[in-house]
Amino acid sequence: MANVYLTGAGPGDMELLTLKALRVIQTADVIIYDRLANPNILEKAKNGCEFVYVGKEDGRHIMPQDDINETIYQSSLKYENVVRLKGGDPFVFGRGGEEAAYLQERGVKFEIIPGITSAISVPAYAGIPVTHRGVAVSFRVVTAHESPNKKESQIPWENFKTDDTIVFLMGLHNLPKIAKKLIEIGKDVNYPCAVISKGTTPEQTVIVGTLQDIVEKAKDAPTPALIVVGKVVELREQLNWFK
Ligand code: SAH
After folding, report:
1. Is 151 exposed, middle or buried, given 0-12, 13-18 or 19+ CB atoms closer than 10 A?
2. Model-wide pTM > 0.85
3. Which of 58, 118, 175 maximizes ligand 1 atoms within 8 Å of its Cβ, making it the mutation to test the pocket?
4. Is the same domain home to 97 and 126?
5. pLDDT digits (tens, 9 = 90+) for 203-236
6. How far does residue 107's CA lie from ligand 1's centre (Å)?
């Protein structure tokens, strides 16, 4: 019976791959991968390993999720070791849970190999700790893919009044709405925030601003990008280490 490994590829820097992920990649018969996974990782595969690209881009799927699920399942019928390689961590906005459920319903054995999520590591490479004594006692990771103005918005905006750190994933196109909404719930217009693009890679860029000016400053920021909102952003001045 096949084994499918739903594997986190980490945020970009290939050395942030786990030893476990590397082991299953080296023995895989097929690797089904996303855009967000560093393609150099594929060079670690054995000769003859098949590669299937199911490019996922900022929530816009080149292949619909149902087809990805089916592709993984069909591969499991054909091959012994199937690696489903996903950017960051497979269970952090990666729809890894849906893929696992699809396999479970069809009696296919699977394992989850967690990865280093961009939500924590990308701020870290920008010198921004998501928690810091006396500054932020917790952090939230929020999908900003949905429009904050949508009536049925699932995002609990009212809970964001505290100084806890908020990391928005998939949100660059919604940045104007996010900034507006945070000011509406009472955050100061000078509240610190940052947009980090291509984090942990040599092309990493970091734009630091306030809720008032971040939209203008980050209008040309490349993707993938995430948004950090919180006083922890100010620590970058002292902690920026990745040049
Ligand atoms: N499972 C992934 C997240 C998938 S959602 C994880 O755990 O990291 C995709 C979003 O993650 C992107 O839209 C972007 O907001 C963020 N992201 C992923 N890699 C990134 C990177 N290297 N730099 C900045 N943001 C990144």
Report:
1. exposed
2. yes
3. 118
4. no
5. 999 999 999 999 999 999 999 999 999 999 999 9
6. 30
pLDDT digits (tens, 9 = 90+) for 123-180: 999 999 999 999 999 999 999 877 556 666 788 999 999 999 999 999 899 999 999 9
Q: Which two tokens stand for residue 209?
A: 């601003």
- The residue type of 144 is A
Under 8 Å between Cβ of 17 and 37: no
- Distance (Å, whole) CA 94 – CA 103: 16
Residue closest via CA to ligand 1's atom 5 equals 93
* Ligand 1 pocket test target in 13, 16, 18, 36 with most atoms within 8 Å of CB: 36
Boundary residue ending a domain (81, 113, 145): 113
* Residue 154: domain span: 118-239
**What domain count does the chain have?**
2
Do residues 195 and 222 touch, judged by C-beta distance below 8 A? no
Instruction: Specify whether 34 is catalytic.
Output: yes
Distance CA 80, CA 86 (A): 19
Residue 123 sits in a domain whose CATH number is 3.30.950.10
Six-digit token pair at 82?
Answer: 């199937």
